[in-house]
Amino acid sequence: MVDRTPNKNGAVTWAGLVTPDAAASLDFYASVLDWTFESPVEAEIAALSIAKAGSSPVASIQQGVDGLNFDAVWNPYFAVDDLAETVARAKANRAVILAEPFTVPGAEESIGTFAFVMDPSGAGFCLWQAPEGAAPVARAEPGYITWTVLYAEDTANFAFYADTLGWIVGEPSPVDDYRLARLGDGSRVAAIRRLPEGSLPGWRTYFCVANLNAAVDATVAYGGTVLEAPTRIEDGRPFAVVADPLGATFGIVQAE
To answer: Model's pTM, two decimal places?
Structure first.
């Protein structure tokens, strides 16, 4: 599952979809993001499918608990050098630990250790300590995660991530309170925006596509919804925001 690519503490490294209908989700994302799928872990978590961009694993799709009524949701994963220490910092910073550090049965050595966290605003995300600090990385190539945005009622919530993951958080934009976070080396890692009225706090993951218009058309053709039509921000690449047929919201960005 893990590419031997050196990763940095706090970097976006993976995305996981939890959905009430994994089989339907596989068909949708194969068509929209041109992913193929494999399930490398056997009986213990047979409902977990690994998405691949070319030959590289980039995301996972997991069947949710039967009997629960919920919309599908994408959760970002952030790389950490020391999971136990990071979880302790998250707790000290008022996070709720929804799943204490755990390993995937049968794949401890190849995949690493995880924890599922809810920040003080109620936004969920995962922490991942991969073997030897290696894991897939976000990049501007088709099929890969390329960006993440946190929507929160108060953009000062980024202080939690600065304290927990070591992010360096910029000042808010005077126009829309948009803030950028960077790693210690100056590379951009995420952004935070004020939550739209009537919405719940949460992370939005953006995936890179080879052809934005084709991906938007496929979204509609396979039962999804276009929430924000293709547009371009200043000095940025064209993007759109869509939802899959089961309610999971995500962004798609034109490859460079």
So the answer is: 0.89
